[in-house]
Fold this sequence. Notes:
Helix content of chain B: under 10%
Strand content of chain A: over 45%
Number of strands of chain A: 12
Largest sheet of chain B: 7 strands, mixed
Structural class of chain A: mainly beta
Structural class of chain B: mainly beta
Radius of gyration of chain B: 13 Å
Mean pLDDT of chain B: 92
Mean pLDDT of chain A: 92
Oligomer: heterodimer
Largest interface: A-B, 19 and 22 residues
Low-confidence stretches of chain B: none
Amino acid sequence: AQSVSQHNHHVILSEAASLELGCNYSYGGTVNLFWYVQYPGQHLQLLLKYFSGDPLVKGIKGFEAEFIKSKFSFNLRKPSVQWSDTAEYFCAASNNAGNMLTFGGGTRLMVKP
Amino acid sequence: DAGVIQSPRHEVTEMGQEVTLRCKPISGHNSLFWYRQTMMRGLELLIYFNNNVPIDDSGMPEDRFSAKMPNASFSTLKIQPSEPRDSAVYFCASSSYSDEEETQYFGPGTRLLVL
Lengths: 113, 115
């Protein structure tokens, strides 16, 4: 069965700390990968996506993610977080057999000023 | 583009009442998705449409839930009768099925509280 796992449910960091949020997927065939962010009280917004090509993907607001096929992972990183990065982050996956997204459970990030 | 539009943004109703949530996808998008988000269950896909046709409704919780897409620019999600456990944020998302890189764009959501 297709699944996406985010093992960190809650992360607390101080400003300027580095961030890495884990995402692992279980998908057959070609996989497309996404990170969405949901700021408090708001809707999901796309941070970045990977379809093919360079496995290191750069997104908005200084975020990047690396697709490591051998590890079935697509971890999200940011070298220096800001208080405004406080949000919930969702990893998601789909494949070329259709455009249904499977979401991970989300990781709540709190950045202390 | 205005993005995905949902209405109402907030809905408070009493148990047993009918609730209708509305969604207008991004113009030109031909796939539409309804999700429900709760603290307990996270983000769940309820149903999705391609070219106005329901493709997968396996996520619809029970017969009290129904969704329609009468045309490319409008969809409804109806709950009848509503129950307190239906309280959640309901998101609509749309994408372009024909795009090689299909990305879903989300609306602002409808916060539903059933008393």
